[in-house]
Amino acid sequence: MFLSLLGITFAVSLVVCFVVSKLFARPIKGILERIVANDIAYAWTTYLKFAVYVVGISGGVRIHYLENFLREPTEHFTPPALTSDRWVLEIYRTIIESLQSIAWMLLIFFVFALIAYVIVRVFGQRSKAQGSTDDQTEL
User: Please, what's the b/e burial string for 41-76 (b: 16 or more CB within 10 A of its CB; e: otherwise)?
Assistant: First the structure.
């Protein structure tokens, strides 16, 4: 029964990661193309998709918690029973934990992307201003 739970939580996390990866593919690609060159943006986009899967699956499939189902019962611990209610709870928890992990990763990415975008804009405006100043001195 434990192996079924592990397999189902992995599959659910994988589906959640696939959906989130598809939903955020365009925004991530667009942001990276504005910040870095197109050939590098493709590589970073691919890496971020990979990161979504790694973070989402590792967040959704909580190995330390699932180990409780394998522990031997003691006088202070009784392993949880895998009833239908527990299955629903575990699947729901897997979805929420996957989404939460991915959300934190994407938040960090978007914060750094915003900082990088501002830096690119500031340096772009400075270089334009210096270029127009150089053009005026030559006239």
Answer: beebbeebbeebbebbbebbbeeeeeeebeeeeeee
Q: How many Cα atoms sit within 13 Å of 94 on the Cβ side? A: 23
Chain centroid, CA 75 distance in Å: 40
pLDDT tens digits for range 16-58: 999 999 999 999 999 998 888 888 989 999 999 999 999 999 9
3-state DSSP helix/strand/coil percent for the chain, to nearest 5?
A: 85, 0, 15
- Mean pLDDT of all residues in 63-83: 82
Written as six digits, the tokens of 120 are 């690119």
Are residues 5 and 82 in contact, defined by beta-carbon separation less than 8 angstroms?
yes
HEC readout, 82-124: CCHHHHHHHHHHHHHHHHHHHHHHHHHHHHHHHHHHHHHHHHH
Q: Give the closest residue to 24 by CA, choosing from 58, 63, 56, 59.
A: 56
Cβ atoms of 87 and 66 closer than 8 Å: no
Q: What pLDDT, on the 0 to 100 scale, is given for residue 64?
A: 81
